Every structure is written in structure tokens, then in C-alpha cells.
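Troubleshooting log. The previous structure file for this entry was overwritten by mistake, so regenerating from the original sequence record. Sequence copied from the archived sheet and checked twice against the printout by T.R.
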Amino acid sequence: MNLPMLATVTGSLSITEQQATEAITLPELVSVGQDGAGDSLKLDTLSRLALVSAPKLGSGPGNIAMNRCGQARDPVQSPLTLAFTTLRSIGGSFDLNELPSLKKLDGIPLLASVGGALRMTSLSVLSAFESSLLQTVGGRIAIDRNDALTNVTLTGLSSASGISITQAPALTAILLLPLATLGNDQGYSLYCQSLPVLATVSAPNLVTSTGAIYIDMVGAELGPANETLLSFGALKTVGGLHVERTSRVVSLAGFSALTTINGYFYVATNSALTSLTMPSLTTVTDSLRVWSNEALSTVALPSFTSAGTGFSGSLGFDYLPALTSISVPKIERMPSTLFIFYVGDSPAISSPLALDFGSLVQVGESLEINDAPHLRDLSGFARVVAVGGTLMFDRDRELASAVLPQLASRRSAADRSERGARERVLSCARERRW
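Regenerated output below.
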């Protein structure tokens, strides 16, 4: 389909379900409008498509979408080629979906801004998403199910409402080098999941992330000599932090500047994590919970002073068989529950469990320490004067005395208000059901 003289389309340009179309060439097209749905250019279900060329089109006010094109092409012998060599801005969303013969994005070299979302889905032979000129994306960058993708390198990106990268079995690196702020898209700023060979996530200039950073199921196929490095050295504030089911994350040292988590902080089922030290962290407004990290030996939160209340109480540490120490020396009051269950119970551990909550005066709800076989004393709770709910020590076999010398008040079981959801969490943890 060659339209050699077409220069302007006041509405949208839509080409769909043309099974014989192999090329769309628009050598003089400089302007397109948009339709009622917000589309400027829509190409859909063109199974034999090998070329789309609009070399003079500098912008599109609405959405540009290419869906289900090139399925009948051989990606080696006749890959799909995009030639938008002067395209700099897209007012709406930019969608590339189910383009199994698209190997490269070098035909869109100047794209600097996308007003809506940027979505790249099921591009099975695309090997890289690299751009030094893309600066702003008004919506979410969503990259999903791209089997050959090895790296995402955006060295010009300054802002986006969020970034989601999922189900990329060959992806080794995510580099977001100049990015300073991330917005909040459906609760998340950065969402990385099912990336089995991921070795690096780096956003060294990111200072503020209004949504949560979520890292899940990464590094499962990396060898034991490799690590997954999380590098967020400038990050101060985040809307939540969740690191779960990683295989080669050894520490969270890449969050050393983080001071405030406006949400939950969950660290769970990270098989190689040996140390959790957050030197600058002062505040978590929801629950802080660390659980099921089989190699974790130390937890250190030297600056932590303000805990929140969430589904898992204020602070929880459970199923940590290699744990030898928890240090949270500056916090004075917890509004909800503090629980420590099944810690340091590995047969390989014989050293005493050291707990340092040296400034803690008041626990708003329960304080429970169960199945901590090498806890020998409660000197780390020497200043506790009040516990608002249950005070429990159970199956701590080396604990000689369960005395808190300063304890002045403990709400009786009859007077205590039940906290249903949090009590269920504690019940599951006690019975090893979580």
C-alpha cells in the first residue's frame, strides 16, 4: 500500500485486517489528526506486513498503535521494519503489541515524548529497548512477554508515571540512568516480575518514587557466582518497597540513602539474602515484615524511629532460620504488634540471638517472641514499660527469665480489643501456615 502524495490526514489513519498487505509507505505524510477514540494511527491484524514507513511524520496528537502485525513473516529472512525517522512526539499512547517479527526499534530514533502509556507486549524477537532521547512518558511504560529482550536502557528518561517490566526470560539489565522521579500508577512506580536472569536494576539518580517499588521472582536462573544488584543509591522516599522471591539478591545495600517508606516494607523468600541493613531508614507508615529468608543472619535498622500499622502489625520477623541479630535501637513506640517467630532455629546456628530494641518504651498491641531457641535474655527490651495487648514468650528454650524489668502495664486478655486481621496473621505465623 503506497500513498506517495498523501501529506495530511485530518482524522485518524486506520488500516486493519488486510491480510495481503506487505508494505505501507507514506513518504510525504507530515500530519495526522485523531478520531473520537483518540487514535491517530492504527494498524491492526496485518499478518504479512514487513514495512511501515512514514519518514516525514514528526508527531501524532493521539494514539499510535500497531497490533497483531507480521505474524506470517520470517523474523530472520524478512523482519518487520518500522521507519518513523523524524517522529519526535506522540500525544496519546504508543502501543506495540503482538509483532513477532519486529527485531529492532532503530527506525524510531528521535522519539522524545509520549503523552500516554508506552506499551510493548509480545514482541518475541525484539532484543533490546534502548533510547537516549526518550525523555517523558505521561503514562506507564509497560513491557511484558518479550522473550528475546536482553536489556532495557533508557539514558534520557526523566519522568514516567510508572514502569512495569514482566515475563522477559532473557532480560539481564534494566538501566534508568537519569530518572529522578517516578509517579504512581495503580499503586506502583516500578514493578519487576518473572525475570529469571536479571542481574541489574539501576536507577542511581531516582530520588522520589511516589508509588511502590516491587521486585519479585528475579534471578532464579543466575548461577551461584552471580548476584542481582539493586542500585537505587539516591532514593530517599518511596511509596512502598517489596522484595520477594529473589534468588540472587544478597543485600539491599543499594537502598542505603532511603529514609521514608510511605507504605509497607516487605522482604520475603529471598534465598540468597544474608544481610538486611538500612542505615538511613527512619519511617515506615504501614507494616514492616521480614519473613522466609533462609540465609538472612542480620537485620540492622540503626536510624529507624517511626513504625506504622498495617495488616502485619508494626514489625514482624518470622521464619528466619539463620538469624543471629535484630537491631532497631532508636524506636521508642510502636502503634501495633511486634512479633518474632521461628528465628535462629537452624541446626547450624548455636550463637545467642541478639535483640536490640534499646529505646523501645511502648508497644501498642502485642509483643510476642516464639520459637527463638537461642534467645537467652530480654536485655534488648530493658526500657519497655507498656504493652497494649498480649505479652507472649513461647518455646524459647534458652530463655532463662521472661522478665521485663520496667514493665508497668499490660492490658489483660479480657480487656483487650481484638484486632481481627492482624491476629489472623499472627496465628498463621505461629502455626507455620504462612
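Confidence is low (pLDDT under 50) at residues 412-421. Archived copy saved in two places this time.
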